């Protein structure tokens, strides 16, 4: 009986795309790994979406190997929440802020303007609400600790880069095992949020630049992995050798050569051919 994989390979052959390797990596048939010998990755992904959507997949033009660098977004990627939306709930304005967040993630709004608008709405909120929010609302995405710690055990440098805030990202990064954290800083005076930010904005261009700068320090031919879910992650995802969209918005998903639509973050370890016996539990 012809499988979905057989049908996809036939469709790709009809378009002149040569597959070096293709296979399902688990017994449920939900994790797909493909190496492309010839053809365009975007065209390949378009065909695969016809047969495997949703699915977990990674497409590469060469053999898939463990990266030397892992750079990840935080909100809705390494954690299951959008921090600014949850913090806004303590000010009683979550619906207003969440609507702006969603439009920014979809790529409908300028990121910096949307960020400053949302932060401005938090003016006067007690700084103590941040710690309360961390304790009560913020939790790691399933598989996050195992992903980060396993990659580190394989010699991969790990960096958390977020358009969110150091107040959240620093403890989250420490909890998950990231070696470096890059993010925005909320301005605080007399124990209350001022509605402003301190320093330069960490936006999509900064996320990409962090990845590129980290790669330089790792030397020639170092492979990179990036994960994210929103429009602000697209440049970073596109710049990485393995750009994986994690349960992502449409624009981010379309920009990636890897997708996690079904499984948790440990699906990335499967796609990198890291056996479960080597995983470092979180």
TrEMBL record:
Tell me the SUPFAM superfamilies matching this sequence: HAD-like (SSF56784)
Fetch the Pfam families from UniProt.
HAD
Gene Ontology MF: a single term:
L-phosphoserine phosphatase activity
Q: Which organism is it from?
A: Altererythrobacter epoxidivorans
Taxonomy, superkingdom: Bacteria
Q: Does the keyword Magnesium apply?
A: yes
Q: Where is the active site?
A: 73 (nucleophile), 75 (proton donor)
Query: Matching InterPro entries, A to Z?
Result: HAD-like_SerB (IPR050582), HAD-like_sf (IPR036412), HAD_sf (IPR023214), PSP (IPR004469)
Keywords (alphabetical) are: Amino-acid biosynthesis, Hydrolase, Magnesium, Metal-binding, Serine biosynthesis
| Identification of the protein by name | Phosphoserine phosphatase
A single GO BP term for this record reads: L-serine biosynthetic process
Question: To which pathway does this protein belong?
Answer: Amino-acid biosynthesis; L-serine biosynthesis; L-serine from 3-phospho-D-glycerate: step 3/3
């Amino acid at each position: 009986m012809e499988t979905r994989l057989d049908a996809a390979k036939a469709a790709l052959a009809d378009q002149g795309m040569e597959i070096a390797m293709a296979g399902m990596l688990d017994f449920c048939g939900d994790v797909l790994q493909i190496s492309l010998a010839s053809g365009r990755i975007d065209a390949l992904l378009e065909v695969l979406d016809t047969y495997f959507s949703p699915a977990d997949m990674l497409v590469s033009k060469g053999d898939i190997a463990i990266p030397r660098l892992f750079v990840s977004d935080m909100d809705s990627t390494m954690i299951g929440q959008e921090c600014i939306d949850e913090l806004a709930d303590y000010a009683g304005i979550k619906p207003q802020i969440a609507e702006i967040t969603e439009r920014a993630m979809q790529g409908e709004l300028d990121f910096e303007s949307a960020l400053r608008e949302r932060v401005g709405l938090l003016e006067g909120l007690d700084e103590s609400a941040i710690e309360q929010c961390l304790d009560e609302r913020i939790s790691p995405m399933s598989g996050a600790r195992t992903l980060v710690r396993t990659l580190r055990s394989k010699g991969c440098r790990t960096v958390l880069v977020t358009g969110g805030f150091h107040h959240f990202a620093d403890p989250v990064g420490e909890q998950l095992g990231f070696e470096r954290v890059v993010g925005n800083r909320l301005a605080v005076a007399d124990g209350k949020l001022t509605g402003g930010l301190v320093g330069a904005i960490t936006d999509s261009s900064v996320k990409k630049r962090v990845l590129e700068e980290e790669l330089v320090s790792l030397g020639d031919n170092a492979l990179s992995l990036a994960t994210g879910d929103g429009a602000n992650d697209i440049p970073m995802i596109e710049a990485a050798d393995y750009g994986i969209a994690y349960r992502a918005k449409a624009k981010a998903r379309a920009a990636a050569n890897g997708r996690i639509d079904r499984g948790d973050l440990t699906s990335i370890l499967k796609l990198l051919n890291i056996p479960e016996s080597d995983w470092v539990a979180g």
